[in-house]
From TrEMBL:
<feature type="domain" description="Transmembrane protein 106 N-terminal">
    <location>
        <begin position="5"/>
        <end position="88"/>
    </location>
</feature>
<keyword id="KW-0472">Membrane</keyword>
<dbReference type="GO" id="GO:0012505">
    <property type="term" value="C:endomembrane system"/>
</dbReference>
<feature type="transmembrane region" description="Helical">
    <location>
        <begin position="89"/>
        <end position="110"/>
    </location>
</feature>
<dbReference type="Pfam" id="PF21002">
    <property type="entry name" value="TMEM106_N"/>
</dbReference>
<dbReference type="InterPro" id="IPR048511">
    <property type="entry name" value="TMEM106_N"/>
</dbReference>
<feature type="domain" description="Transmembrane protein 106 C-terminal">
    <location>
        <begin position="111"/>
        <end position="251"/>
    </location>
</feature>
<dbReference type="InterPro" id="IPR009790">
    <property type="entry name" value="TMEM106"/>
</dbReference>
<feature type="compositionally biased region" description="Basic and acidic residues">
    <location>
        <begin position="10"/>
        <end position="34"/>
    </location>
</feature>
<keyword id="KW-1133">Transmembrane helix</keyword>
<comment type="similarity">
    <text>Belongs to the TMEM106 family.</text>
</comment>
<feature type="region of interest" description="Disordered">
    <location>
        <begin position="1"/>
        <end position="34"/>
    </location>
</feature>
<dbReference type="InterPro" id="IPR048509">
    <property type="entry name" value="TMEM106_C"/>
</dbReference>
<dbReference type="Pfam" id="PF07092">
    <property type="entry name" value="TMEM106"/>
</dbReference>
<protein>
    <recommendedName>
        <fullName>Transmembrane protein 106C</fullName>
    </recommendedName>
</protein>
<keyword id="KW-0812">Transmembrane</keyword>
């Protein structure tokens, strides 16, 4: 009896397992059938009363390939990407940084004044032409040029004219004179050759007069300088009256700043 009941139980359990496996196989087949049916079934966009068909895909659920680079995706207004953090702080810092850079550029590149001062007469050499009663004087003058800029400047041109009353007695012009480093001062010397003759031949007797120890004459000197720096050109002029001794050579101790 015991063996008969156990065999009956075994057959019933086997039947249950077979039924269960058969049900699973039916579910799997039905699932595959549904997927195939869905794949064959065209996409349909279901719209309610207050909705419209998507104009981009025309109800197909796919965007045409040729319109991929033309269409714009919409995101909700509440999306965090539309509300970046600390935007105002970054904008303020950027503006302040730009203003700082502009201020520094203007501070260092803004043209400052170039001061030109008379350095006096450094040397005088005199020659006498007795037959023609002409006195020739080589007068070496100095000028102090102070550069207050944060960049070097070039003295590109120097023009000096010497007059006695209304008569021009000497002129000199120089180009590419010198370079002045930033925030520095430099002395520049130049020599003008003066000629006292013709209507001024009476100076010959005055300059060769032995009874007079000092033969000073007063001349008017007008000197113009042209400066070039960072694509900018400026001019400066200096007018002075100079006393020179036309009776003998004279030399002033050399200034170490003079070139």
């Amino acid at each position: 009896m015991g063996s008969a009941s156990s065999s009956h139980n075994s057959r019933s359990e086997a039947l249950k397992q077979d039924n269960k496996m058969g049900a699973e196989d039916d579910d799997l087949l039905s699932g595959r059938d549904r997927e195939e049916d869905i794949a064959q079934f065209p996409y349909v966009e279901f719209t309610g009363r207050d909705s419209i068909t998507c104009p981009s895909c025309q109800g197909t659920g796919c965007i045409p390939t040729e319109q991929v680079n033309e269409l714009v995706a919409l995101i909700p207004y509440s999306d965090q990407r539309l509300r970046p953090q600390r935007t105002k702080l970054y904008v303020v810092l950027s503006v302040l940084f730009c203003l700082l850079i502009c201020g520094l550029v203007l501070f260092f590149l803004f043209p400052r004044s170039i001061v030109v001062q008379d350095g006096g007469i450094k040397m005088v050499r005199v020659w006498f032409d007795k037959p023609n009663e002409v006195v020739t004087i080589a007068m070496t003058s100095a000028m102090s040029i102070k550069n207050s800029n944060f960049y070097g400047i070039s003295v590109s041109n120097l023009l000096s004219q010497v007059q006695y009353i209304n008569t021009v007695i000497g002129t000199i012009q120089m180009t590419n004179v010198t370079l002045i480093p930033p925030l520095s001062e430099k002395m520049v010397n130049f020599t003008v050759q003066l000629e006292l003759g013709g209507t001024l031949s009476y100076f010959y007797n005055f300059c060769t007069l032995t009874t007079v120890k000092v033969h000073n004459i007063v001349v008017f000197m007008r000197t113009s300088l042209t400066f070039s720096y960072i694509g900018h050109v400026s001019q400066s002029s200096l007018e002075t009256y100079q006393y020179i001794d036309c009776g003998a050579n004279s030399t002033v101790p050399r200034d170490p700043l003079i070139n």
